[in-house]
Amino acid sequence: MNEKELQELLVFLEQPRKIAIIPHRNPDGDAMGSTLGLSHFLRKLGHTTQVISPNEFPDFLAWLPGAEEVMIYEKDRQKCTAFLQSQDLIFTLDFNALHRTGEMEQALQTLKQPMVMIDHHELPGNYAQFVFSDTAYGSTCEMVYHFIQDLQQGALINKTIATCLYTGIMTDSGQFRFPKTTGTTHRIVAEFIDLGVPNTEIPTLLFDNNSYDRLQLMGRALQNLKVLPELHTSYTTLSQEELNQFHYVKGDTEGIVNYGLTIKGIHFTAIFIEHKDEGIIKISFRSQGQFDVNQFARTYFNGGGHINAAGGKSTDTLENTILRFEQIVKEIQP
To answer: What confidence tens digit (pLDDT) does each residue in 180-196 have?
Structure first.
């Protein structure tokens, strides 16, 4: 966000405003942590805020402060649309193209209110009047921290705000293992811990509250894991039948893709998950080193994301999607 935009936004926020804050569809820890953290902060400035998620978020994020107040667009489209139209300002966090909100896109496109984008993905769209977009950051939560500092309101960050932002920084950094985890990232996290963030408890809340069915589903995904050693590639699959067998609920497949990168010699992995109700195969890509899965997802699977973490989709069958993936990988030699 340039200085001119920042000053204009500062002037706009001098008066109490009604503000809606939107994450992307299928929100993860960074999306929910950043929206809720920003919501708590703006309330301390005297604004009225409401987080509206395009659809349900995973149960393992339900403990986040303020999560119980989040409105779900897919549960009541008319109410949420009317609410959006009554707001003074719209923040969009952790995405940079309105189609990332799914069915909510049309409602957002019709709004006349100014929008603020805070995001770290490549190729930002042009829908927002105020744009803080920078791919150098490892998480949107870290960007929200800097946004608060740019507003010269860092003193307002309390344990509640810090807990939300810590969660997103930790999850989007792969628990501080990904390349964009910097010394600044750790200094911010240290500040949050000093504010009382329960840093030893949050990983348990996020990763250790597994159901028996989720562990069984994870086991099936590991059984399905295929390795292409000469291509330094692995991938796994989960069919709709397998999801049904283990009573899949949102969030159950979170993190499974990362296991493919733990194999010696593998630096590119993927998971293909069949969702027959939506008519698509959802795909997650991960890499280590310089192989750009963002470009791979954009080029071949109608997706995108970051250099080492991206997503895509296919409308073909699971079997044909896998065949196409293997052929592409053989051709490009990642």
So the answer is: 999 999 999 999 999 99
Residues 17 and 12: their CA atoms lie apart, in Å, by 8
Please give the pLDDT value at position 70. Answer: 98
Per residue in 296-309, pLDDT (tens digit) is 999 999 998 888 89
- Whole-number Å distance between alpha carbons of 183 and 172: 16
**What's the Cα-to-Cα distance from 109 to each of 10, 106, 162, rounded to whole Å?**
24, 5, 32
Q: Which domains does the chain have, with CATH numbers?
A: 3-206 (3.90.1640.10), 217-332 (3.10.310.30)
User: The tokens 């159901």 sit on which residue?
Assistant: 211
Alpha carbon distance 211, 101 (integer Å) = 28
Q: Count the Cβ atoms, other than its own, within 10 Å of residue 7.
A: 11
The three-state DSSP-derived secondary structure of 61-104 is HCCCCCHHHCEEHHHCHHHHHHHHHCCCEEEEECCCCHHHHHHH
Query: Tell me: the pLDDT tens digits for 111-147?
Result: 999 999 999 998 899 999 999 999 999 999 999 999 9
Q: Tell which residue, 254, 35, 23, has the closest CA to residue 141.
A: 35
